[in-house]
Here is the input.
Amino acid sequence: MNTASDPAMQAYPVSTASERHMTRNREFQGIPGIEKTKGGRLWAVWYTGGKGEGPDNFVVLVKSDDGGQSWLKEPLYVVDPPGKTRAFDSTLWLDPAGKLWLFWAQNFSPELWKISDGKGGVWAAVCENPDAENLVWSHPRRIANGIMMNKPIVLSSGEWLLPTAVWADGRGGIPLPEEVKDECSTNVTISRDNGKTFQLHGRMDIPERWFDEHMLVELKDGRIMCLVRTQYGIAQSFSSDKGKTWTKGEDSGIYGPNSRFFISRCKSGRLLLVNHPRPEGKEDKDYRVREKLTAYLSDDDGKSWKGGLLLDERQGVSYPDGTILDDGSIVIIYDWERCKEGDILAARFTEEEVLAGKISKSKSYLKKLISHTGGLKN
Here is the structure.
């Protein structure tokens, strides 16, 4: 790849927010992520800017120091490349040493909704002390081709696995470059040295993959399960060799309206799934609506799910991400009506409340507003 002549291949540092990034100057926003620091601070990230997915997009970070009860009204830090290079599909992750990783995708976008130049690029910057008053971020590194919007996992053996992907032709109208065609799949990137280096490690064959948005979980029997967004719902694939080789993708039996979901291991050992439920009385293929965002639990590593805490019943709720607090409670972030409202919201709840189907704890909340732009202004 010719990095010198391609602005999307250049490193753009995490910087402090300016007037351009204030809420009053933003319209479209969504696709959020959240993470907890060792000190208990919550950081949230999403991308925004312009009237949709396109060249004006940039990434913003805000924080909460009271468990998500209140949030700063304006962003503290941003990733905002110049020109027609966009920053998007960001996520936050706390590594085992307590360092906060900010990942984002970066590519050339010639116009609105021309969202991918094919090769993309996963970039990362690291903050060693995310509980400090003023954060210091490392110089960004490009660690993989493609996209990654969901958190890495740490295997019991210590390796880090990252759910990266190179989208197929047609994802945004720009042809896939020849140099990345061999990586056009649902991928796994690995670090064996605590984030010093990263390598493409494994690839999956997932029929009808869409924007991937896959998530990884290490199961109790040592296998790794990967759940993947597809056109028909959620697919699954399994690896028995730390992510190097994978079973052919198949229907997991979990419904999905062709949208992002969230899965994670709770402190109890159960699996948590935040997803849209299967619609009642409607054919799946004819009713792909992002509504009724709901949390479920599994005692058998995803073979079956129980409970059902409705986080937000409205249409247009989507793209959950989450983190587990020290007391075992769960915080989920998501968006609502990215173009019409521009809302970023959060819910906090416990496993007990998921099983009961209602919140009852004093620290729990639903539909907590983090940010609201009002959507497109004209």
